[in-house]
Each structure stands twice: as C-alpha cells, then as structure tokens.
Backbone:
C-alpha cells in the first residue's frame, strides 16, 4: 500500500485532470438541482392553487395533489443525479481503488450479502425479525496476501407492524480467518451509547486476561478454549488498537471460516459528494485514508500469518 | 410476619446458593482441566510422528528420542495427578524443543514436507494447549477467589476446599516448540 506522499503524486498526476472534468459536471448538476428544485416548488404551488380552485379546498385531493408535481420533479432529477453518480464513482472512485490495489473489485450497487449478516450471529434480532430489510452499496472485495476479504456499507432493519427498528448501519467487513475453528466467538464493544449498537450475542461469557480488553469488550463464545485459541494475547492487543483507531462501536464475530467485523456508524465514504467542490485534495485523501483503514484490517489483525494448518504455505514456498 | 418469612427464606436460600456457587466453580476447574488434557493428548499423538520423521535424518540422536518416548509413555498412563501432569508436560515440552533444536542442524530435514507439516500441526496444537491452559487458569482464578472471599470461605473451609494450583509453563518452556516455522509472507 502506498504512503500519503505517493497518493498526492497520484492525485496531481492522474486524478486532478479527471476531477476537473467531474467537477464541471458537478457544477452543472448543482445548477440543474436548483432549477429542478425551484421549478418543482413553483409547480407544486401552482398545481395546488389550480386544484383548489377546480375541486374546492376541503377535499383531501388538494392536500395530496402535491405528489404529482413532486413526482415529476423527482423523475426529472433522477437521470441528472445518475449521470453525476456514474462519473464520480466509475471514474474517480474506481480509479482510486484500482490505484490502491489493481486486483480489487469495486461494485457500487452491490454489498456484502445478507447471508453474511445472518451467518455471523451478531444480530439475533435481525435473524429472528419478521420483516427484514437489508440494503447496501459500495462493495470492495479482493485478496490481500493470502486473505480474501470484502466490505461494504450496509443498512439492516426489521419491521414489527408499523415500527421499523434499525439493527445495523455502518460498514460490514468479512475476511477469511487464519486459524481453523468450529464454534462461534463474539467480541462486542461494551460502551456503545448508540441506538444501533451491538446486541448481546449468544454463548457463554468469556473472561479474558487482558484488563484493558475486558474493560472495552465483552466476549461470548460457544467454547471457552476456542475463544482463547482465537483471541490470543496478540490478537486482543490488535483488536484494542483497531478499536481505538476506528472511534466507533465495533462487533466482531468469528464464525464458519471467517472473521466478521461490524463497524457501527461508519461509512466507506464512496458515495458521491454533490454540495461541495471536488477540487480539495482532502476530500479524496479522506477516501484513500478510509480505504487504507478498511483494507488495513487484514494486516492490522495479522490475518496473513498462516503458520497453522489452515492455508499454510506449501513446503516449496517456504525458505530453506 | 411477611418480613420474617423473607428473612427465613434468605437464611435457607443463601447457604444453598453459596454452596452451589462453590460446586460450580470446582466443577469448572475439573472441566477446564479435561480440556487441557484433550489438547495434551493431541500433542502426545504427534510425538511418534515427530520422532519418526526426525530419526530418519538424525539417527545418532537416539538418546533424545528415547527420552521423549519414555516421557510420552508416562503421560499416557493416565494415573497422574494435576501437579504431576503439569510437571511432566513441562518436561515433554522441553524434550520437544530439544528435538526441534536438533532439527535445526539438518537443513534437508527442515526442508522436507513431512517435517514442515508436523511443524504446522505442532504450532496449532501448542496454540490450542496454550488456549486450554488459559481457560484452565481462568477457571482456577474464579475458584480460588470464590473459596477465599467471605462468606463463601466459611463453606469452603467446612468442605475442605483448597486453593488450586495454576497451570504454568516452566520458564524454559515459554517458547513454543514449534517455533522456527516461517510465517507466510504478507502482502
């Protein structure tokens, strides 16, 4: 992965000309947004006046008639927005991701599957919810070293009658874990004063030796021994360091063959920015830094070290 | 009247709850030690393979092989107490570390696929033993705390419950016998 100085060289050499072109489109899109917005407001007012005069002011038709001009406005806005989103994501974001690692795949309309959300076991309320709703965007996937990974923005909620409860909103990260295990182990932030913080996962409470880790996280597992096999003292320190960097409640599940990390209230930052200029390097450096943070999880958690039987290198790949 | 009933109920329930807590903690220690035992068994199962592979390249190290084979036979007898088991396990770890050190002198052996597979298996077993040992020590800590604090200590003394020893690796043994395995290079 490149250093920030490399990013600025890349920014000046490759990204700046593309940004200038997309910036022109952004300005046009903002102008069109104002025009469509103003016309929609005026159109709605005129429409309501006409409707009120024609059918009288006491009918519910008048109160709901705004739907028609607003709908027309939205229909007019959609292709404009789509054109700008295409340019921003397909030209700028894709270029940045490819620069970060040529082998990475980026799909703005795809997300980490709902299956991962249900399989990880971190969200029992979601799993048992009657009407589940899960949508996500901006999936980045690839392989760092020998470790396949993927992450995306994800928004999951359940509905009970007319009440919709948000279960998770943030970045969901999945990577192949470097050790074999058979049960489930969960690590969740203890002090999550957020409405959509981690739930209490199933399993026995595991009390680990690291007091700082214990103060920050609750650990539950189907096996006391396996939890400690997974959460070595070194990995506990890495998770602590990662949590301090992420500055958000996190929940980690070790299940199947994978490590799942739910980063609450965070974003991949890959969605288009419309209401501010693109010609500030800080904006794209923010995307780059966020990408480094998320892809850095693999190295931060040392998932490429495979001295165990799982995915260990073949004899001929080892140094003599 | 109502208060008297509550007081009597509390006086009856408290000793039962305290006794049950002590029994649960004691059983947790036994259960955790069974976990350690299972993991140690995995290590014992690897010893014959390790000896066979290393022997093929280092035949004149017969004494080392004999020592570890005898230690394994003692461990497999299954009539040892916890502290004897811990002591024996530390000696086995030392012997295995000795074999791995011997292997360092034989580049062909280190390069052989069988040996490398064994090293990986050994690394995994050592990690699992370490995890089981940590789980055991956590159970012992909870048990020792329970029998040491008032008023549980009264029941513990009456039942003759003694503090349990922790499972500690001997100072010479802190290094994993499987070390020397090169981790796969990261990107």
Residues:
């Amino acid at each position: 992965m490149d250093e920030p100085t490399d990013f600025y060289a890349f920014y000046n050499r490759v990204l700046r000309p593309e940004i200038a072109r997309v910036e022109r489109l952004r300005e046009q899109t903002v102008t069109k947004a104002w025009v469509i917005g103003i016309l929609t407001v005026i159109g709605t007012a005129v429409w309501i006046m006409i409707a009120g005069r024609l059918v009288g002011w006491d009918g519910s038709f008048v109160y709901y008639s705004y739907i028609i001009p607003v709908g027309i406005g939205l229909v007019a806005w959609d292709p404009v927005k789509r054109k700008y989103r295409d340019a921003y994501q397909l030209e700028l974001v894709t270029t940045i991701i490819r620069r970060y690692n040529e082998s990475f795949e980026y799909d703005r309309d795809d997300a980490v599957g709902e299956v991962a959300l249900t399989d990880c076991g971190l969200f029992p309320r979601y799993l048992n919810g009657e009407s589940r709703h899960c949508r996500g965007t901006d999936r980045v996937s690839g392989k760092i070293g020998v470790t396949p990974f993927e992450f995306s923005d994800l928004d999951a909620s359940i509905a009970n009658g007319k009440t919709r409860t948000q279960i998770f909103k943030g970045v969901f990260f999945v990577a192949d874990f470097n050790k074999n295990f058979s049960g489930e182990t969960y690590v969740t932030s203890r002090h999550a004063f957020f409405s959509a913080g981690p739930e209490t996962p199933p399993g026995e409470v595991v009390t680990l030796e690291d007091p700082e880790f214990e103060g920050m996280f609750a650990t539950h597992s189907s096996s006391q021994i396996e939890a400690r096999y997974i959460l070595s003292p070194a990995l506990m320190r890495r998770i602590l360091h990662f949590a301090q960097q992420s500055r958000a409640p996190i929940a980690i599940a070790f299940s199947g063959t994978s490590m799942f990390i739910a980063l609450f209230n965070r974003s991949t930052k890959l969605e288009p920015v419309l209401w501010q200029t693109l010609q500030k390097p800080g904006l794209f450096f923010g995307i780059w830094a966020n990408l480094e943070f998320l892809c850095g999880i693999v190295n931060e958690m040392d998932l490429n070290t495979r001295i165990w039987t799982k995915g260990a290198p073949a004899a001929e790949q080892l140094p003599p | 009247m109502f208060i008297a009933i509550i007081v009597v109920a509390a006086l009856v329930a408290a000793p039962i709850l305290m006794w049950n807590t002590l029994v649960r903690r004691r059983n947790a220690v036994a259960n955790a030690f069974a976990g350690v035992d299972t993991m140690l068994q995995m290590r014992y199962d690897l010893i014959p393979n390790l000896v066979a592979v290393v022997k093929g390249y280092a035949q004149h190290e017969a004494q080392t092989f004999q020592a570890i084979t005898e230690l394994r036979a003692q461990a497999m007898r299954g009539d040892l107490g916890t502290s004897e088991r811990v002591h024996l396990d530390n000696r086995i770890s030392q012997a295995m570390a000795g074999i791995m050190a011997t292997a360092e002198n034989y580049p062909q052996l280190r390069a052989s696929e069988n040996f490398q597979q064994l090293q990986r298996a050994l690394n995994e077993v050592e990690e699992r033993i370490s995890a089981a040992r940590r789980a055991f020590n956590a159970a012992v800590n909870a048990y020792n705390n329970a029998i040491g604090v008032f008023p549980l200590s009264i029941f513990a003394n009456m039942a003759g419950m003694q503090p349990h020893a922790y499972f500690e690796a001997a100072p010479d043994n802190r290094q994993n016998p499987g070390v020397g395995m090169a981790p796969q290079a990261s990107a």
